[in-house]
Design a protein that fits this description.
Layout lengths: L5 E5 L3 H12 L5 E5 L34 E3 L4 E6 L13 E5 L4 E4 L1 E4 L3 E3 L9 E2 L4 H12 L4 E5 L3 H12 L3 E6 L6 H4 L1 H13 L2 E5 L3 E7 L2 E7 L4 E3 L2 E4 L3 E3 L15 E3 L11 E3 L4 E5 L5 E3 L4 H17 L12 E6 L2 E7 L6 E8 L4 E8 L2 E8 L2 H13 L3 H5 L1
Bound molecules: flavin-adenine dinucleotide.
Length: 405
């Protein structure tokens, strides 16, 4: 085990919690400080766009009650200083210290960066315009629903926008979904599934406006009354949710010497590049994925943060020489108007897509994504068994025939 007595974990959510739990379960007996900008202990985000909007407040993450370290909530890290011994090999670092927003310095021997991501925000924001990332965001949105606002426009048809559309329709709201692409999620799902998803939204009463961007808002007395599109059209709204993607929280690392490029750039075993005592995990980590030839990959899903928090902590204790690469197949699932949509791997890397099970018009199908004949991704609708088979094939680097025979 590396010689460390103080480990800091910045970001008190899923990846940070899993890191703390793993440090303890691997026998680390030194000090752990978990620093989180939110006032809440770690909680689960997926219910925020689903059950929480329907009135169920359960966002429990098992283990969050006993953190196994000192928890500094409502504290934001604003700067990182990394000790580098003069003349040391580039991948050799000592500890360092973190400056918090109240001026406190937290010295560390080892560091886990788990600061996740935040929603992209629209510059202009009259009352009634929301994003959804935190429990406070979800409760604010629910309060708007309870107050009787019924005419919802969602900006962005990604998975969060789709889930909110689905929940809002189930609650009886009028829902308009505006998406800049030809079909919602077409980059993530591929064109056939995205076309199916567009029809699925429409069948379930969502007014879908594709291929156009939002230009701004109409408002009266500071409250939104409509959404203005780039072509001059105005869509009436008394409630808006912007789901336009997320950006990794790396600003506090600027000037630290870490490589930042759409996240913290990491080695295959999740060490921040050029360091031997700093790891990153979850939505903020962009690491060299060995399954994809060392391509830099950042994944914004639960299973990834859950597994990476643990692997990053284990690797930090083991040190770079004994660390193991993190090469799990990225995987994600969502429910939209009752349909189960799942992805595995990285479909956008493919040069060919083939439907290998069912058909979109049957409401159950799986599309395999290939690059040079090798499976790199899969997308399934209401077909979990077949999707899982392809997921195993992606992990094995199979050609299509091997994965489906
Ligand atoms: C509404 C919603 C629904 C979702 N549904 C699904 C789903 O169905 N399936 C799925 O796979 N994924 C889903 N996700 C994504 C999943 O929740 C995330 O991938 C996961 O939360 C990432 O965990 P993380 O710990 O890496 O980062 P985060 O959960 O983003 O946590 C990072 C934490 O760090 C804190 N922080 C940031 N900067 C600082 C700083 N400078 N100092 C201190 N603290 C800081 C933040 O406040 C935050 O608490 C959903 C996300 C949302 C928002």
């Amino acid at each position: 085990m590396a010689d460390m007595s103080r480990i800091a974990v910045v970001g008190a959510s899923l990846a940070g919690l899993r890191a703390v739990q793993t440090l303890r379960s691997e026998g680390f007996a030194g000090d752990i400080t978990l620093i989180g900008a939110e006032t809440h202990r770690p909680y689960n985000r997926p219910p925020l766009s689903k059950s929480v909007l329907r009135g169920d407040d359960d966002v429990t993450l098992p283990g969050a009650e006993e953190l196994g370290g000192e928890w500094l909530g409502n504290r934001r890290a604003v700067r990182l200083r990394v000790d580098r011994s003069p003349g040391a090999a580039t991948a050799s670092t000592g500890g360092g210290s973190i400056t918090l927003d109240d001026g406190t310095e937290i010295p560390f021997d080892g560091l886990v960066i788990a600061t996740g991501a935040r929603p992209r925000r629209l510059a202009e924001r009259p009352g009634g315009v929301h994003e959804l990332r935190t429990i406070d965001d979800a409760l604010a949105l629910r309060a708007e629903l309870d107050a009787g606002h019924r005419n919802l426009v969602i900006v962005g048809g990604g998975f969060i926008g789709g889930e909110i559309a689905s929940t809002a329709r189930a609650l009886g709201l009028t829902v308009t979904l505006v998406d800049a692409g030809p079909y919602p999620m077409h980059r993530v799902l591929g064109v056939d599934t995205a076309r199916w998803l567009a029809a699925h939204h429409q069948k379930n009463g969502v007014e879908l406006i594709s291929g156009i961007r939002v230009a701004g808002f109409e408002s009266r007395d500071g409250r939104v009354t409509g959404v203005r599109l780039e072509d001059g059209r105005s869509i009436p709204a008394d409630l808006v949710v912007a789901g336009m993607g997320i950006v990794p929280n790396v600003e506090w690392l600027e000037g630290s010497g870490l490589t930042l490029d759409d996240g913290v750039v990491c080695t295959p075993s999740l060490f921040a590049e050029g360091t031997s005592t700093i790891v990153a995990a979850g939505d903020v980590a962009r690491w060299r994925h060995e399954l994809y030839g060392g391509a830099l990959v950042r994944v914004e899903h639960w299973a990834n943060a859950n597994a990476q928090g643990a692997v990053a902590a284990r690797n930090l204790l083991a040190g770079p020489e004994s660390a193991v690469p993190y090469a799990d197949v990225p995987a994600f699932g969502t429910h939209t108007h009752g349909a189960r949509i799942q992805t595995a791997g990285l479909p956008h890397l493919a040069d060919e897509a083939r439907t290998v099970h069912g058909a979109p018009e049957e409401g159950s199908f799986v599309v395999a994504f290939l690059r040079g004949g090798v499976l790199v991704g899969a997308v399934g609708v209401n077909a979990p068994k077949e999707l899982n088979r392809l997921k195993r094939g992606i992990a094995a680097g199979d050609v299509l025939e091997a994965a489906t025979s």
